[in-house]
Structures are given as C-alpha cells and as structure tokens.
Amino acid sequence: MKSLLAALMLLLTPGLAAAQDFTVVGLDGKSKTLTAAQMADMPRESVKLGGGKTYEGPVLAYVLREVGAPAGAKLHGPAMRTYVVVRAKDGFAAVLSLAETDKAFSNGLAILADKVGGQPLSDRDGPYRLVVDGDLKGSRSVWGAVSAELKAAQ
User: Fold this and answer.
1) Model-level pTM?
2) How confident is the model at residue 106 (pLDDT cuts 50, 70, 90)?
C-alpha cells in the first residue's frame, strides 16, 4: 500500500518526475520491466553525496537480481567479468562492474534514487538517478535513468 501511495504521489505532483517503469536486461538478453510500484517495494538505501544532498532509492544490486545477476558467494569466477550499463532517457550511459554493486565486494553503494532530500526527483533528474556512494565526482551519476543491462567482458 505504501508503494502504491508513493507511486500515486509521483504521478499527481506537478513539476516532479512522473513514476516510470525501469527496464533491466540480463546476460541472456531477456528483459524485465519493473513498474514504479515494484521499484518502490525493493530494498532501499540512502546515499549522502559530498554536496550534502541525500538521495534515496532501490539498491541497484536488487534490481539486477530480477534478471538473475549473481550476488554474494555466487559472484565469482566468470561472473566477475560482468558489468552493468545504466542508460538515461537522453542516451547517456555509465558503466559499473557487477562487483561494485555488491556489498560483499564494495564498501560503496549504488542506488537508483527516486528521491532527494525526501522529495521526488525533478523531471530533469528522474525517473531514477544512478548514485554511486564513494565516487569523488558525479560523472557516473546517470540522470533520467531508465534501464540497466548486464554484459560480460570477453
């Protein structure tokens, strides 16, 4: 119920990013579209950036698990060649290794923020914004993120 209310608030608040689906693609090429309500129900975290802003949203690792991304003890061997491409609605993209998204491998945290300072993202930044804890620059902060795709390096 809480996620449904959150999704409705995003849709009904003028000037704020409308709730939108997020597409995730697995290594096998199969995609899954997650609704705003499904994204709101995923495990969530907050990341405070150097500028003092706190972003909140679903943990990227949990979104990737929806298409079978290995995690924890299962992330070893050939799976260590896996990387993630997060794309924005304007075509911009950034890359993270799959290990960077997993708490078993990294002290940082990657989220798909849907809120900043407790408020929904603006139309410019939303529907989701990739926020990578620990990055010293915001170059991988994908504004307007709409998809994430798993790929394997050769």
Assistant:
1) 0.85
2) confident
Phi first, then psi, for residue 14 (nearest 5°) are -65, 145
| H helix runs in 30-96, sequence order | 36-41, 60-65
Q: Where are the beta strands (DSSP E) in the chain?
A: 22-25, 31-34, 44-48, 54-58, 82-88, 93-97, 110-113, 115-116, 119-120, 129-132, 145-152
Rounded to whole angstroms, the Cα distance separating 7 from 2 reads: 9
- In the β-sheet with 115-116, what is the strand arrangement from edge to edge? 44-48, 54-58, 115-116, 119-120
Pairing mode, strands 54-58 and 82-88: unpaired
Enumerate the β-bridge partners of residue 131.
Answer: 111
Comparing CA positions, the residue from 107, 106, 125, 131 lying closest to residue 55 is 131
Instruction: Identify the CA nearest to 16 among candidates 130, 131, 124.
Output: 124
Distance of CA 153 to the CA centre of its chain: 21
Q: How crowded is residue 119: how many other Cβ atoms within 10 Å of its Cβ? A: 10
